[in-house]
Amino acid sequence: MRQFIEGLPKAELHIHIEGTLEPEHCLELANRNGIALQHNTPEAIVRSYDFNDLPSFLSAYYSGMQVLLTEQDFYDLTCRYFQKAASEGVVYAEVFFDPQAHTSRGVDFETVISGIHRAQKDARQELGIESGLIMCFLRDMSAESAMEHLHMSLPYKHWIIGVGLDSDERDNPPSKFAEVFIEARKHGFRLTMHCDVNQQDSLLHIRECLDQIGVDRIDHGVNVLEDEELCLDLVHRGIGLTVCPVSNHYVVQSFTSDEIRSLISKGVKVTVNSDDPAYFRAYINENFQVLAEEGDFSQQEIVQLTKNAFDIAWLSDDVKAVYLKKLENYVASFSSSVVI
Ligand SMILES: [Zn+2]
Predict the structure, then answer these.
(1) Ligand 1 mean position, distance from CA 319 (Å)
(2) How many Å lie between the centroid of ligand 1 and the Cα of residue 339?
(3) How far is the CA of 15 from the centre of ligand 1 (A)?
(4) Which of 115, 227, 247, 319 could be disulfide-bonded to 75 (CB atoms 3.0-4.6 Å)?
């Protein structure tokens, strides 16, 4: 199974580029930029990752990214993610970035997006990985700040495929950002939002995503299983979920393999992703692997999750067909009992 997962051509749709900052790289950048860190070895940094909920994770996440200052820093960060992703069989990635977490520290929007974009171009040429960029707003900041950043992004809108919403969900419902997302849609952006696992008002937030925001996708969203009608609505509208098993484990002490299997059986387009792999110490293959171990997932189920990711990716039908053919060829070469 491990070998099967490793070779599978994959799409990753829920990955925060700032969440790929490995401890070694964080120390290198701190050194390069003359920043003093609380911990001086990669091991000490990893030991400090003591998450048990969303706020405790976010505290480490925002603290780590203070070393990112220059265009070259963002370029290097993004290149390293693509190198790792390519080594794990990722052929297409939709990558989140959090501009407000940088502009609030005095780093220009242009610096951030230029570095990421340059790395995307090089990854396409040198590694054969295609990618899209999704700009996330921080939901614990104001809707005015989100709108200001939406306007800031417009000169670069040909570099951005969609907008998302992340950070601390408590008391920050999707409806708070309704105007921002309506405006984003007018500019042609695709829409997604985080509905993290087991948050206060999770079901209400998922409902708002569907009815008030009109999202194309939901990040996490596993709690939809608690409401049959909501689940049917999701299937009816063809809205996919980008689920992150290892990330979920920090919050609910389970890789949510039962929930993922139920979502598959109900026809929800559920996918597997790594979220913030440097912090959760697991990239995409490790996320598939825990499903094989905890949930005894079959090759057929793993393939279904992979197919879903290409199906709900923000790509043209023609491009999707090319990736699905690649997936089909791989599966055929590996096993005659798995069907696509
Ligand atoms: Zn996320």
Answers:
(1) 25
(2) 30
(3) 7
(4) 115
Q: What is the pTM of this model?
A: 0.97
pLDDT tens for each residue of 222-237: 999 999 999 999 999 9
Q: Is residue 331 part of a domain?
A: no
335 alpha carbon to ligand 1 midpoint, in Å?
Answer: 33
Report the C-alpha dihedral over residues 130, 304, 230, 295, rounded to 10 degrees: -110
Sign of the CA dihedral running 31, 79, 60, 49: negative
Residue 335 lies in a domain: no
Measured in angstroms, how far is the CA atom of residue 194 from the centroid of ligand 1? 7
Picking from 329, 338, 340, the residue whose alpha carbon sits closest to that of residue 9 is 329
Q: In what order do the strands lie in the sheet with 217-220?
A: 10-16, 90-97, 130-138, 162-166, 190-195, 217-220, 240-243, 270-272
Q: Indicate if the pLDDT at residue 26 is higher than 80.
A: yes
Domain that holds residue 197: 2-326
Q: What's the confidence (pLDDT) of residue 336?
A: 66
